[in-house]
Amino acid sequence: MTEQFCEVGKLRAELLQNLGAVGETVTNVLTLIEKVMQKIIHSLAKKEAPVLELNTRSSWSNTRFDKSVGLLMRSVCCLQLLNLGIFLLTALFLKVLEMIYKLVQTDSYATKRDMYYNDPQLFVTQRNLDLIVDDISCMLRVPRRSLHVLATSKGFISGDLCYLEADGTRVECSSSSTTVPVSSNVSGITNIVSSAKFVLVVEKDATFQRLLDDEFCTRLHPCIIITGKGVPDVNSRLMVRKLWETLHIPVFALVDADPHGIEIMCIYKYGSVSMAFEAPSLTIPCILWMGLLPSDIERLEVPQDALIPLTKNDESKLIGLRKRPYISCQPTWEREMDIMLKCKQKAEIQCLASIAPHFLTRVYLPNKLHYGGWI
């Protein structure tokens, strides 16, 4: 307990020193952090437990839906829920605010992983730091990249695309046999060059690899394929958004015909509750559902042994999805979800291999693209 108090005192002294050295050239982010710190320091000086007003990033009631953007955070939803009288929590928040302040002040960047290893004993887990960074970003109402904090990417991209990274490195994504990790600094990407006709967002890494193995990006059309390897990280979402804004080409989603796949597609298209405060830079409202559609299963006569029964959890998730505000403006999506509920079956994209080994890349997707089989 005494050590934690010492840590808080040390951080407080360092922050006061930093705040006094900035002068008149502080950026908006620095000013916002200073205001937060002034409140905290004022409370500590009076020996009171500081309280920060944070938006609850897990509550649907704190979001609103806009058809042209997706899920947005309401402007009046602040709750006094973070009591910094908890010593460890105080140390965590002060430490992260200090690190962000220094990054912005010196115009340098760090990944969340770098920040965690700056003091792993204090943060205990990477998740603790990740949540605090996102809470601070939400509290200040600025994108995380404005805090000069980068996240390690888990996504991959390939296809007819080349660009320059922020450090001037030229990235070529056109090799049919290799993939390129999605940049950890998407906002710094410039000089995007591509003759792609569309972007295909792929839910799973296994399907992504199948497309690569079959040279999908070059055999059918020049295109770009990208995967967030399941639930997408922020960088994968930023990259899809940047490609859409820069190239002005269609964006399609290829996901499993199950509630989980539909939800992942919705995250790309409409955003997530936890990141609703950054929706304008993350969502792709025009994304189209290429497949796998529940109606495709019967139409293509997919063998029964390749299908999976819906579980009770699946049904609950699907019913929950049907109630989300953005689904009501997608009647064709609603019909597909109703088909799934009625048939009580789901299917993974890999089930198409039960029809023929290369059915996905040589029949299914080419026919979809030629005849407009998306919704």
Automatic annotation (TrEMBL):
Residues 91-149 form the Spo11/DNA topoisomerase VI subunit A N-terminal domain. PANTHER family: MEIOTIC RECOMBINATION PROTEIN SPO11. This is DNA topoisomerase (ATP-hydrolyzing). Keywords: DNA-binding, Isomerase, Magnesium, Membrane, Metal-binding, Nucleus, Topoisomerase, Transmembrane, Transmembrane helix. GO terms for cellular component: nuclear chromosome. It comes from Pygocentrus nattereri (Red-bellied piranha). Coiled coil: none annotated. The keyword Zinc-finger does not apply. Its EC number is 5.6.2.2. Its main location: nucleus. The chain crosses the membrane at residues 71-94.
